[in-house]
Amino acid sequence: MKSFVLSADLLGFKKMVKNLNEEELDQRLNVWIKLVEELIREFKITRFKMFSDTLVVSTDPTKEGFGSLIKFSKAALERGIIKSFPIRGGIAYGDISWGKEIISGKALIKAYEIEKSQEWIGITCENGIPHLEDYWSIENLITYPTPKKQNDVIELHPIISWEIPKLNDLTKILTKGGLAKKGESLYWDFGHKTSNTIQLKFYKEILEKNKKDPSKFLGILPAELIEIELEKHPN
Fold first, then answer.
1. Rounded distance, CA 130 to CA 62, Å?
2. H or E element at residue 41
3. Which of 96, 122, 173, 231 is the residue whose CA sits 20 to 30 A from 195?
């Protein structure tokens, strides 16, 4: 059946497993499960599955179904990050089959591929997905060049708009809950993902301040608009 599909992963899950003892890991996973269950109830999601660090959610192929998935995704990003659960996800549209044991379908594969291609905390939608025109706004969806792996092309996508913590707060959040050991060095994998995420925060603030169309992106990289904004206030 046709559906909207979200495939999402917890970033840093392997580090949690490595850094936490069995009891601590069980506690963290219980917090994660309770958070997902809370969101499922709140947004009346009827099709979902969790396995290891992966979450798959699908909604009806309607305007309302897409809207529910947007709201679910936004809330998952915002409430997840507060609890040191950084989420990266992809949303696609198409055929998906829900069996008792197996989920399959081209839409799931596409959502998974979108998710794995990204280098930040965030959720990106497939280009051309139905009902985009109904949800362009600073609160829901904006057009943005999703940060991807080095060998991928720079490409604009609809992305979930969410409230990102300040850099200092985000850095603290991303070193708690087993995501890092006390006193250990931070690597550029952490630095790149964090910087890419914060750039979206800056871009959104400029977008809102200048009342720009959220469905349009001017330039190639978000740094261009940030640079233009800084030039307006040289001192």
1. 8
2. helix 22-42
3. 231
Is the Cβ–Cβ distance between 6 and 110 less than 8 Å? no
Alpha-carbon span 68 to 73, nearest angstrom: 9
Q: Quick check: pTM over 0.90? A: yes
**CB–CB of 91/55 below 8 Å?**
no
Task: Please give the average pLDDT of every successive group of 10 residues along the chain, which has 235 residues.
Answer: 95 93 94 96 94 93 97 98 97 91 89 96 97 97 92 92 96 92 79 94 90 88 80 70
Closest CA to 17 of 6, 9, 8, 28: 28
3-state SS of 170-200 is HHHHCCCCCCCCCCCCCCHHHHHHHHHHHHH
Q: Is 145 helix (H, G, I), strand (E, B) or coil?
A: strand
CATH of 2-232, one of 3.30.565.10, 3.30.70.1230, 3.90.79.10, 1.10.287.1080: 3.30.70.1230
- Cα–Cα distance, 92 to 3 (Å, whole number): 8
